[in-house]
Specification:
10 helices; single chain; alpha/beta; 249 residues; 10 strands; 51% helix
């Protein structure tokens, strides 16, 4: 993304924040923290806020982590005033979030649906309070068929709780989410748990983490022969990095 485009996106987000806009689903506090309120309807402001957050993380060139707080389920119709182009832009923003050159850590509290669930499922490490529930929104007698269903299915479409969530919109409670590995940890003090996770992830370069994350995501749908080249390239990169470090010591 060009610096001009980034500046434009950031300016629009800042203007919306100063104007007290409540139409979006995301707030963008200073630093590498993003808050997404699933109660609010998806909007262009939401997408711009996520884009601005990604800009800030990418500008750190792989140094530092990113924390995303998610909560809330849509109030009223999830599809109100949505269009396919808007949904496509949102899914592309989520894909960018999923590929950030940094460890992404989510804190989920209470019911999480809509944009909150979408964002949660893109992160690397997910911490949930014991009151958390993952909720697939139901719209006009059917669950919303967004990419959250795809990400849930990748965790195991045969799991009964996931099948019920995808087909019937049955919420997945915190204990089931942990058992199904949809979240990594349940915590009474999620902020402290996030700090511990950030310290653990801090030992890994964000750029290198992004490469290994992509290899992991590609593995279920890639044959050995197709994957070999990408893994060898990653190994070559690691060996070159090790050689540079060895030459300096």
């Amino acid at each position: 993304m060009s610096s001009t485009t980034r500046t434009s996106n950031t300016t629009r987000t800042s203007d919306a924040t100063r104007a007290g806009d409540t139409a979006g689903t995301a707030e963008v506090p200073p630093g590498n923290v993003l808050r997404i309120d699933g109660r609010r309807l998806l909007s262009a402001e939401t997408i711009a806020a996520v884009g601005a957050f990604c800009d800030r993380v990418e500008d750190l060139a792989g140094h530092g982590n990113a924390t995303i707080h998610v909560s809330g389920v849509p109030e009223g119709s999830w599809a109100h005033e949505l269009t396919v182009p808007l949904v496509n832009k949102w899914e592309r923003a989520l894909r960018r979030l999923e590929r950030l050159p940094a460890a992404t850590i989510a804190i989920a509290d209470g019911d999480c649906g809509g944009a909150a669930l979408d964002a949660l499922l893109t992160t690397d490490y997910r911490i949930a309070t014991r009151s958390a529930r993952l909720v697939v929104s139901v719209e006009d007698g059917a669950t919303w068929p967004g990419m959250a269903l795809y990400r849930l299915a990748r965790h195991g479409s045969s799991a009964a709780a996931i099948r019920r969530a995808v087909l019937f919109g049955t919420p997945v409670g915190a204990a089931d989410a942990l058992a199904l590995q949809l979240v990594d940890e349940l915590a009474d003090d999620p902020v402290s748990a996030a700090a511990t996770a950030e310290a653990r992830a801090g030992a890994v370069s964000g750029a290198e983490l992004a490469i290994r994350r992509q290899l992991l995501l590609d593995a279920p749908t890639t044959t050995f022969e197709e994957a070999l080249g990408a893994h060898l390239a990653a190994c070559d990169r690691a060996l070159r990095r090790a050689a540079v470090v060895g030459a300096r010591s």
